[in-house]
Every structure is written in structure tokens, then in C-alpha cells.
Amino acid sequence: MKIDRIPDTKQQWFKEAKYGLFIHWGLYSLLAGEYKGKKTDHISEWIMNSLGIPVEEYEKLADQFNPDHFNADELVRRAKEDWGMKYIVFTSKHHEGFAMYHSQISTYNVVDATPCHRDIVKELADACRKYGIKFGLYYSQAQDWHDPNGYVSHAMKTEDQLQDDNTKKDFQAYLDNKVKPQLREILTQYGEICLIWFDTPMGMTKDQSQECIDLVKSIQPNCIISGRIGNQLGDYMTTGDNFIPRLPYEGDWEVPATMNDTWGYNKDDHNWKDADSIIRLLVKINSRGGNYLLNIGPKENGEIPKESMEILDKVGKYVTENSEGIFATEKMDVYPYELDGVEFTCKKKRLYVHVFKPMKRLEILNCANHVSRAYLLRDGRDVSCVSEISCEGDPCVSIEFPRDMRNQRNYCVCLELEEEKPVFEPLRG
Ligand code: H79
Question: Which of 75, 202, 230, 390 could cysteine-pair with 142, CB 3.0–4.6 Å?
Fold first, then answer.
């Protein structure tokens, strides 16, 4: 489908943010991918749907929700200070329909229906305010497997479960009686909400998407709407889950991503990406102008899986040491073909060369810029760099990496350019 407008959040913080934390936590986290001895093969927050767990049974999970180990303050502090992230998005209500905050609309919420009586959204909102990091909320506006009029996904349904047929539902009643009142709650009870992360619009009409947007903006005009409000009405483009666009995109966009193969916690999912791959993905996305929203799935007791903490610590080291080459960078206009072990980001008069494999020397062929100075972001040390004409007669910028860096990976060299922007020219030879 042709996009007739360039997605624009009009929010400078989002354009500069580049890296955020997604948190998927709900009743599904208690099951951790397994119900009554049956394991789900799919993303674990879908377990109610995938295994066809009846509402009355699933609801009972709330009786056991008592997350002694959840510490919002510590989590948010780490996201901000150690991991270098600029925003946090938390699941206020996922497809299961359970509110992770104190809702007056439905007692199916974390304060009224659980023994812990804790308002998790409030805990996170307070911590985000304390540490000065943007706070946004995921809200499943179309699917709600708890409300009789919320949409369900049929992909996993058996014949006898098809009484849930979406066409028989009064979706508008669900929108008016649950979604809108709950959006109003999350936008009035917790201070500034930087964005609402809508998901899976399914059969929503353009008017229904617009009604949600109008409500959000009437309460918090600066609150950004994610692309998955549907009908191409979002303020920015949300790519497919874990999907990096193959073509350049204009405007604001974001990749929601996991470190393993699930969003909610799954005790059997050990398919973790390594930190080097995550760093590379982050920079690749930033280079193309996007934000990377990277997910963690806390356990039943609120603990963050240690594997994800270890990855985030390592990525965080790269991000904080090289923050200048990540945050507030601009989309590369021309994107050179994939180079082995290198990604570029840029800003006015700066080209950042992110180095992901040991290298002695790098020739940036086709780069026609004049470099006035080159230095390591890590410690400010000068790096030798010349603008040349290659043997074939084409422009080229050549970098000689310092001797002690040649067996290292994951560092970034800043090239100060005489020109406003990186200039890449096709081969002439
Ligand atoms: O919140 C996370 C996911 O739960 C949500 N979006 C991210 C951010 C999401 N909703 N839908 N999907 C992702 C894709 C759904 C794929 C499906 Fe299936 C294929 C639904 C039914 C068939 C995966 C496989 C889930 C059940 C079986």
C-alpha cells in the first residue's frame, strides 16, 4: 500500500531517542510458557489464546500474582544510567485483557484482583519521573480476550471455539466501555505519558482508530501514537516485530524487538541473541533513522531474567561509551552497501564509523568527504585518516586504526567533516 504522508511525531525527544526499553509483564508471565503440563510453541504472552485456556480459568492466575522481586526504581535506574536508554514502554494491558494498573473500569486489574495490590504502572511512572526518562504505555486496543466484545485471534482456534467469532461482537461497545475509559485512566492517573503503544488493529475501522487518537490527544496533546493504531493513522511507523526495513524510510519509525523469541517470560526460551548482535542491530537501525525498542519479560516474581540483564549491560557499555555516535544522529541519506563489520551514523558535519570486527585499516570507498579530524569516541584519541582518490580514480576516505585497537571490536571513530553531510558518490572509474 502506498503511504501518502511522511510519519512525523513532531516530538524531538522521539527523533533523538534511538534506544528504548519495552517491558512485557502480565498474567502470562506466571505461566512462563506452560499450562497444566502443556508448553506453548509460540510467543508466551499468547498462551491463553494458543492453548485455548478458558477465561474463568485464566482469570485465577491473578490470585497468585505477588511479585516480591519487582523493583521499579532499580529497573528504571539501570535502564537510564547503565543501559543508556531514553524511553520505557510498559504493557498496561496486553491482549489477555488484564490491567497492570489500578483501573476503576474493571476489577480485572493488578490492584483489585491480586494479593499484592500494587499499581505497577504507578511504580514505573514514579521511577521514570525520578530518573528523568520518558515513560510510555502499551495498550492492546483491539484484541481483548477477557472482554466478551474484544477481538480474539482466530489463527489458533479449533472449530468448537469459533463461537468467539469476531463478527458477532459489538466491538464498538467494547471500545466505548473499556478501551476509551481505560485510556482516559492511564492518561490522567500517571502524569506525562510520552506515547501509547497500540498493537494489532485487526478489524478496526478508520473512524475507530481515529476515535482512540482523538481521545489520547484531547488529554495529552504531545502523547505519540504508535503505528499500530491502524489505518495508517499513527504518528510514526512501527515495523513488524523484529523486522528491520529493507528499504530506506522517510520520517519517524521504530523497531520493536526481542532478545530471544518471546515477549512475555518463557522459562524454556534460551535462544538469546548475543550482545554483539544486539549492538550491531541498534546501530544498523539508528543508521537508517529508526529507534530500537528492545524488550525484557520479567518473571512471575518480578525478577528480570539474568540473561537479558547481561546482554543489556554489555550493550549499555557500548551505548554509554559511544553515545555521541548514537543519540540525536540523523538518518544517512545515502546508505553504502553492507560493509563487513562496519556501520555508519551521522550528524551535522560528523560521520561516525562503528567498528564491529578487528581491523587494521578501513577504506570507505565512494566517500567524497574531507575529514578535518578523526578520533575515538571512547577516549578522544586521534586516529589517522586521509581523504584520497583510489587507484581507480574514485573518492575514498581511509582510516588507519591505532595499533592497540586493531584486535578489538565494538568501538566508534568520529570523523569531523568539512562538509555538512556525508557525501557518497558512485564509482566513476
Ligand atoms: O506484544 C507483542 C506481541 O504479543 C504482539 N506484538 C508484540 C509487540 C503481537 N501480536 N500479534 N503478534 C505479535 C503476531 C501474532 C502472530 C500470530 Fe500467533 C500468529 C498470532 C496467531 C498466529 C503467534 C503464533 C501467536 C500465536 C501463534
Answer: 202
